[in-house]
Amino acid sequence: MNHIDITVLEQLHRWRSQGLHAVLATVVHTWGSSPRPVGAMMALCETGQTVGSVSGGCIEDDLLQRYTRASTQPQEHHCWTQTPQRVVYGVTADEAHRFGLPCGGTLELVLEFDPDASVLQQLTAQLHTGVLVRRSLDLSSGAVTLSHTAAPEELRLDANALHNVLGPGYRMLLIGAGALAEYLATMAIFNGFVVTICDPRQEYMASMQIQGVQRTHEMPDDAVTLFKPDLRSCIITLSHDPKLDDMALLEAMNSQAFYVGAIGSHRNAQSRSQRMQQHFDVDPATMERLHSPAGLRIGSKTPAEIAVSIMAQVIACKNNISLAAPLPHPVAA
């Protein structure tokens, strides 16, 4: 679940608790190229306000035209009492062009009219505790039930119900304060991650200027334990100090984190691997979880460029994109 999804649900709750009509749109299927992934959400208020997105903007415009107009025409007020609807955009080439979808792109939405404010309040409250919540929508009645689950699940839609597991959001733990941590944290926040920076060295942490991150002075291995990494967590060591990095990596590689990385040269990476296998009995399969040196090979030299390369690799792992295979060479004309 991305941070924007929580924002969508919170704003939707505010509108409904004020007695305003609102629609929740969820992307449930995509075919071909699509601007937004399955599970993406958008909320629309009768006043014309929106939060979140399901496309590049044109589908949002169409939904606005339909439902803000309906809210001002008494003969169409019945739309707010409708049961959930499934709508498809981009079936024809003309529609794909009209709605700004990429060539061949088609997506299906489930629209929910006037979701219950009390259920939304329960949902957002539970998400803020960091638990996973399965939200099940009955397509025939519009009733929503909430239940806890132990692991993330893919969105499921059948003839009777929509099941969507939400929360917690993506998190990033950085070991080692400094310029690289500031650049990487900034990029991660822009991409919806909640960021924690750990460094027991007070002088390094004192120079950090970035806002919007959580800070801890715990020893790194303790910080990883307290972080409680899950399948939506990533952990990256940036300190260049084996006394800090190694213990954190030992904890991280044995966690559920979807990405574990360490900066350094290839020589440092080899030394780290040998050290961990010889002194800590780390097996080769566990070492394969470690991205070291962290980041894509783009010739990065500056802290900002290195942060770009690491963030790109993190996003690729988050989206289950394999970058192991080399890119094809262009064919000469």
TrEMBL record:
InterPro entries: MoCofactor_Util/Proc, XdhC_CoxI, XdhC_Rossmann_dom. It comes from the Bacteria. Residues 15-69 form the XdhC- CoxI domain. Coiled coil: none annotated. Residues 172-314 form the XdhC Rossmann domain. It holds the Pfam family XdhC_C. PANTHER family: ALDEHYDE OXIDOREDUCTASE MOLYBDENUM COFACTOR ASSEMBLY PROTEIN, MOLYBDENUM COFACTOR INSERTION CHAPERONE PAOD. This is XdhC family protein. It comes from Acidovorax bellezanensis.
